[in-house]
Amino acid sequence: MKPIRKLLRKYVVVMLLVAMVCPSITVDAKQPVKETSTQKVIVIDPGCQMNANNRKEPIGPGAFKTTARATTGVDGAETGIHEYELNLQIALKTSSLLSKQGYTVLLTRNENDVNLSSGDRAMIANTANADAFIVIQTGENNGVSVVCQSEDNPYNYGNYNDARLLSDAILGSVVQEADCDNAGVTEDDDKPIINWCASPTAIVEVGDLTNVDEETKLVTDEYQLELAQGIANGVDSYFTQK
């Protein structure tokens, strides 16, 4: 499987460079990772950004179907907090915990005013040779859900077993740590951030920000730390089971 993944990573990187017509990525997170490092590399993507980019990008290498390059996400029902702000808050807490657990951690962004498409964010994980790619965003379900690719994904089918294991491990740990509703794992092959990534990817949807009850929890440091600890524990569980 490792030779296949290496070939897949090279293919995705080449296709992404051909397909993307945007300026070079210059975020701090794009740092070379030493090949000699024995630490697992985790790349975390805080979903969304301050300004939307409605230009289109393919949903995967060679795809004709396209989607908007970037969105701002939703706003809180009561506090008005922006999703891109919330995602970054949770991602920073998760990054800190994973670093303390011995992982090499990179963020696709560490500020809100960026211009990164889903493909750009996946490219950061590819460049870092990430062992796992975790996307943090809100969703439409109460409680926590996770999205990964299906077994029939035409863009990176070789990642399915690891992506599903990663998703199940994170979801179980988050539900236990945060004592939240389990909204399940969904398999979706139309997510460009999954399709452009050569690493096992899990999109963690931390709750429905437009639901007042969910929002009330999501904006607190205490609950964000519980979510972050659950994600970090899930990563540990994933590598233990591999």
Summarize the structure in short.
With 242 residues, this protein is an alpha/beta fold.
Q: Write down the secondary-structure element order.
A: HEEEHEHEEHEHEHH
Please tally the helical runs, counting DSSP H or I stretches of 4 or more residues: 7
In the sheet with the most strands, the strands line up as 4-1-5-8-6-7
* Mean pLDDT score: 90
What does the overall shape look like?
globular
Helical residue percent band: 40-55%
Low-confidence spans: 17-37
Gyration radius, to the nearest Å?
A: 16 Å
How widely separated are the two ends? 13 Å
β-sheet strand percentage:
15-25%
Number of E-type strands: 8
Largest sheet: number of strands, sense, barrel closure: 6 strands, mixed
Describe the structure.
This protein is α/β, with parallel strands linked by helices. The chain has 7 helices and 8 strands; from the N terminus they run H-E-E-E-H-E-H-E-E-H-E-H-E-H-H. The chain has helices at residues 2-19, 83-100, 118-127, 160-178, 192-195, 212-218, 221-241; strands spanning 41-46, 53-58, 66-70, 104-107, 132-137, 144-148, 182-187, 201-205. The protein is globular, with a radius of gyration of 16 Å.
